[in-house]
Task: structure prediction
Amino acid sequence: MIKSIKEYLHQLKNQLVNNDPAIIQDALSDAEEHLRDAYNNALVVYPNMSEEEALAQVIEKYGTPDEVASAYREIEVRTPPALARRKTYTEKRSSFARFFGVYADSSAWGALLYMIISLGTGVAYFTWTVTGLSLSAGLMVLIVGIFVFGLFLLSVRGLALIEGRIVEGLLGVRMPTRPRFSDKTLGWWDRFKNLFTDGYTWSAMIYMLIHLPIGVFYFSLFISLIATSLWAILLPIFQVGLSWDRITSFTIGGTSYQFPDWFTFVLAIAGLLLLTTTLHLAKTIGRWQGGLAKSMLVRKDTY
Amino acid sequence: MDDINPADKKFLKELSAGIAALVLLSVLDRAGQPVYGYRIAKIVEFNMGSVSMVKQGALYPVLRSLENNGLLNSKVEPSVSGPPRRYYSMTDLGRQTLDHWTKIWGDTKDFVDSALKGVDHD
Result:
């Protein structure tokens, strides 16, 4: 017999323990939203009903934790996340087609876009986190510092959710789709303590800080790779086609050189290979980055 | 409905797999405005009458999968009385899909009905 919504959620979580943390979080927030609504409603509609009976009735209709858990498992098997739709026919193609097929792979372009915007998001997260931390530390001598700090910790969770949406959309890694609710019965001080003692708040904050150097690295790496490949690919057009010597020549020790015309075509092919490799690299790093984001931004210790 | 026998339960479960998606799409289409999970569950329950076809908890993963496939949109809004609620609404793709599925359902229903009645063919 389940005695509280919290206990229900705990059992539901245990049922899903070996599943994707993002499904667990979805299932828990769906259940919490529904059970609270249904329970409050039952108490209003049947004022004579005891709280235990109301809860039992609500759970009877919603389903036991193991019924609900199996419903999520079944659906999840059939639903791939956003861009990461795996194409099963790829395995049968030749290695040549697989290598160049990356141009038609939306997850590679998504990952490349992620690498390029990660400089901007990295700067934004870092600035916000450092400003928030120092402002809170400075104001901590005043009572208002506690509130500022609390708001700042909440905002870090908000940022973690936004980053989660970006990671899911561009890297195709399942991430939680909504914030976890705080327990309505707790007072402000207890909620603040929960926020403060929750390891997830801090791992999200560390993620925000390290995202700056990581973002700078991704951005520089991929912009350089793309610029180099585009230069090499376009070189024969500039040199042989348009004769733009000022662009295509380079100066070493006062003497001006130019590649022989035939060599620019070799470089163009090399550039094409480099661009393709860049997309593969983006995909691989994207997978790694998705794993990092998941391990630092998705809570594992709910309830 | 407490003592539903295992064979019935299995049959209902297999039947409900696809039907839940169709029912949810049509509920949201007729609502004409964003609706949150508990309201959807109440509407479904009201339509369901005495058959306990699906548990309410099994509707939510279906809603999420419909959203992941672009048939529904959702947004979270705070509520006065409890936790924030996720409001679901139809997309254009959802409406088109509902039309197709309604037709498929109609054909299926005719086929099953005629098979059950055992209409003689000459």
